[in-house]
Amino acid sequence: MQDYFRDIAAVLDGLLAGGEVYTSTFRSESSDFVRFNRASIRQAGSVVQHELSLEWIRGRRVASGHLTLAGDLALDRPRLAELVGDLRARCNDAPDDPHLLYSTEPSESAHVRPDALPSGTAAAEDVLAAARGRDLVGILASGSQCTGFASSLGHRNWHQSASLNFDWSVHGGADRAVKGSLAGFEWRPADLEARFERADGELAALARPARSLEPGRYRVYLAPAAVHELMEILCWGGFGLRAHRTKTTPLLRLASGDAQLAEGVSLWENTAEGIAPDFQSQGFRKPDRVALIEAGRYRDCLVSPRSAVEYDTDTNGAEKSEAPQSLDMLAGALPRDQVLAELGTGLYVSNLWYMNYSDRSACRTTGMTRFATFWVENGEIAGPIQAMRFDETVYRMLGENWVGSTRDRDWILDPDTYGHRSTRSARLPGVLVDDFTFTL
Predict the structure, then answer these.
(1) How many helices (H) and strands (E) does the chain have?
(2) 427 with 273: CB under 8 angstroms?
(3) For 381, which of 142, 238, 329, 422 is 20 to 30 Å away at the CA?
């Protein structure tokens, strides 16, 4: 695919006319998908697809287009010529783009992560073996993903990695279920079996009579999956320069210095260890790491090229959304097997759902508990609780009421497959919090 990417770029180079520039992003994937229900394979298939996003530029006029490629140059060459002709005509009528910025310093790179994954068939067989006797439902997605950036100025950047994401839940009848995931660059059947065994214990606890708790403030443990839901909503405008300059970021008080989080809370955009490419769609290279929050204080924004022009600053390779693609949260000192003991009496929250802001300017969030949320007494699970709604600020959760984070962190890959498999990822610990507010 890297050779084919270069062939496509050579075709585009040959279509240029005087005064024209192009930038292009090539994506390719070869993915296996297996859907499970009742611990049996219900649907299996493979997807091989290649696509090109193209911007044709004359001065400050830009026209953009998208093309699904056949992977055969004889078939793709005339289609590329047709697309370029269409973009050239549209470019003639386009207004000047005042915020246009693309990399004019040509670079060439190739980052290829070794493929350490088994075939989709072998991984599915491991799932079936580990899930025997359980009511398992889930989807397994695995395979290689490639991204390339090319321009008429000489850019040739390539990123290729293979990853696996198994998103699953085990059901215990009625409305009892335990949700889990296993993701990363390697496949370890022993890890899957350990997670299934932990799910068995949680299912047994779910079979006990459910408690209904009064609204109030409780000590809670948020498992990594619950922390991920919190981070997902925080990434919604939390770290982008545009949101900060327009005062729409939910972290405005943190950025202005009027509030801070606990010293043990740090967040980075860790491109070097994620699965997203280390360049973006205007050709700018991303630094290995951008400190977003360090020791509880706001450090840097993610800056897209368009925001860099608008606010007269430098870009650090963020995409247009200015949302983290490879989020990394600092690990703590709490051993995972000591979580219940450290929690003492309170709630063990496996997942959070239906998250939204209840007061964006105050970074106040709301959502629901679901899937294996337990009442814990004296370090022992007493039983499940009825679903509850919380309403709490990030400044309290990760600030004044933050107790600690786990030493172990979970890789969580975005399961989105709309159009193509997402390359967004997060590596997160579990978090222990005091006085967590439940309102319903």
Answers:
(1) 10, 18
(2) yes
(3) 329
